[in-house]
Amino acid sequence: MRVTRERLLAGAAVAVLLTLTGCGGGPDDKAGTARETVPATATGSLEDLAAEVKCRPDIQTDADEIRQGVCQVAGGKFILATFATDRGQRDWLNGAKDYGGSYLVGAKWVAVGDRKLVTGLRGTLGGSLEQGASHGAHASHGADASHGGHEHDG
Prior knowledge:
Order of helices and strands: HHHEEEHEEHE
Strand order of the largest sheet: 1-2-3-5-4-6
Shape: globular
Helix content: 25-40%
Strand content: 15-25%
Number of strands: 6
Distance between the termini: 66 Å
Largest sheet: 6 strands, antiparallel
């Protein structure tokens, strides 16, 4: 019985360590507390998810496969997208991540914005954090209303 208890404690310690170190910002990341208290991943329509974070989405795409809107919260703007299928979500993410940005990924939904903002949203919506490709000076500087984090400077 003692071996089982020790294994359980070791497993719990590893899980806590992964939770604290696996999702990223630096020591100056003020949203770091959200990582430690991640709720169950939210579900629902685009409007339901937006209401959870207290925003009214400006709908940009309203199709059977994807619904996408721009939300404004105290921390800035982000894109919130919902998908009809898991495959549609993964295909969209695979394409969008080429443009950089930070992605909070839930069950058939994605929030896209800067890292600090989506890390903060995670404290309300749950989900997992994913990072887009890094393009140095051309990386995304926030959410763009036309695509998941893709911006052109002109």
